[in-house]
Amino acid sequence: MARIVRCGLIQAHNVLDASHTLPQIKKAMIEKHTKFIEKAAQKKVQILCLQELFYGPYFCAEQNARWYELAEPVPDGPTTKLMRKLAARHHMTLVVPVYEQPMPGVYFNTAAVIDADGSYLGKYRKHHIPHCHPGFWEKFYFTPGDLGYPVFQTKHARVGVYICYDRHFPEGARILGLNGAEIVFNPSATVAGLSEYLWELEQPAHAVANGYFVGAINRVGEEKPWSIGEFYGKSYFCDPRGKIVAQASRDKDELVTADLDLDMIAKVRQTWQFFRDRRPETYSPLTLQSASSAAAD
Predict the structure, then answer these.
(1) 0.90 surpassed by pTM
(2) Mind listing the pLDDT tens digit for each residue in 262-281?
(3) Is-contact 74 110, C-beta < 8 A?
(4) Is 126 known to be catalytic?
(5) Set 7, 52, 182, 202: catalytic member
């Protein structure tokens, strides 16, 4: 019997701008996503991923300590606890990106993975942290991830997570494949311009190179007062051959769903034997600061 898993991605506008209080902003976005989760349940989605930092705007557009107050513990914070209840109620595995504070003064860009019975399986912390103009001041807010590249055995599939800027780095994407990921979700906050042409290039390439499915999520709209650009949506699923099999619009709140045939993974890997033909003994320069260091050795 084929292993078909129905998966979903939520892309959404931010509800309230930065002039509102943080509790108001957070409450409005959580209520919005709760409705989307209910909609996904009606469509019988089995694994659902939310967008990066889903319960607020992309606040990294400025450097302001005010936003530290949005952070909370994982899994003992209120958002993870709520999502565990929703996962159990709807029998749905959830990937929930949040702003994590494990201890005072330490913050991570994190995704909690919750199984369909409401059990907390673990978390991924974003490794690659950009800090560049205009409006991506993430090193002000996030410590680089320190939990490696875990893969979570959910009820329906083996799930990995890569967050936004991580997608520009093939090394972690390969490790997720070697760790057994069947579906890799990449929740993002990406604006039109420099990286838009890469949106439908890099992640299908990861899918092909590693023989797994990818679910890529991007929020939508322009967020004030920063107006760093338009978050262009276009969330999608692609298969292990790199083909985009379902995609959302550019500018609308949307739930995109796809039925993923996990048996395709073995078929593709039996054709493209990339894992067999790897040469890890030749890759030591990857762990050095520069190629010139390797040459000097």
Answers:
(1) yes
(2) 999 999 999 999 999 999 99
(3) yes
(4) yes
(5) 52
